[in-house]
Write a structure and sequence with these properties.
The radius of gyration is 20 Å and the shape is globular. By secondary structure, it is mainly α. It starts with 5 loop residues before the first helix and ends in a 20-residue tail after the last helix. It has two domains: about 150 residues, no CATH class; about 130 residues, no CATH class. Helix 8 packs antiparallel against helix 9. Helix content is about 65%, strand content about 0%.
Amino acid sequence: MSSLLARFAENSFWMARYLERVENLARILDVNETFARDSHGAQDWLPILRLHSDEERFFDLHNEADAESVVHFYVLDRRNPNAIVNAIFLARENARTLRHLLSLEIWLQLNIMWNWISGLDNRDLNLADFSRLCARIKEGCQLHSGLAEHTMYRDQVWLFYQLGCFIERCDQTTRLVDIKYHALLPRLQDVGTPIDVSQWNVLLRSAAAYHGYRRVFPRQMTPTTVSGFILFDPYLPRSVAFCVREMRRIIGDFQSHAELRHVVLPTDTVSRLEELASRQPWQVIAGGLHEFLDQVQIELIALTRQIGLTFFGHPAEVGEPLAVLVPGGTAA
């Protein structure tokens, strides 16, 4: 790219991904703590570790996956690369490099958010007030998104920001459904009971999909309708279908730039994602939900690597917490 250094493109891409990751994690922790049946229930807290592939790292530091240890691990533990405090730090470091390309409002808001989160300690993780803490984290991420929407100049920096946001969101949604779907499948005697309904509420609320789901399905709540809505509804901002549609739009916007007319963009991977996102929920359930979600994640990894090779000068890795610190090329 002649108008944007590769390292700036990469910074914008990862700034969006880290903040999207923070909001998703805060939402999942909040919902999980609210619905947990007891503070030491392994069935309540182990899925969060599995969701982020953190079981080995966590149990190197803790003996039991109880509420207090998991919450600290994911909010303030600097030894955990996936912790909220580390993700916000990395988002701010990306923004620092992009400082001359970002609005003053975005930079100030990220600094306020970082100063607040870095000043917290274990006393601030009191489970009685944990929902309020998560709400403030989510509001900080949403404020950042709003400022980006309303103040970022619509050049290539904005396109990479959006691309990072929707890839991360799509990845987080598939991981959430993959873990929660199997963990929440009820015992036969629980089907239709308040326990059954509350379990599916957990999945819907973790994906910020509950109110949208109730507009489409006012009375019904089954594994197929819930997972199908979260994955395939074209109007749900966190669904795979919605995110893939936005990825295609952004790739199309890249192709409209004269500076990129000689760049081979990763449209084949997006086409495969579009095919996956166009399937019917009952077909996916019948053919194996885990296998379907695994295929979506494989394509997202391939897309991220292709974007890295095409624009950043090296392959970018999905979920790599320190990927942003790998030096980019001088120009793509």
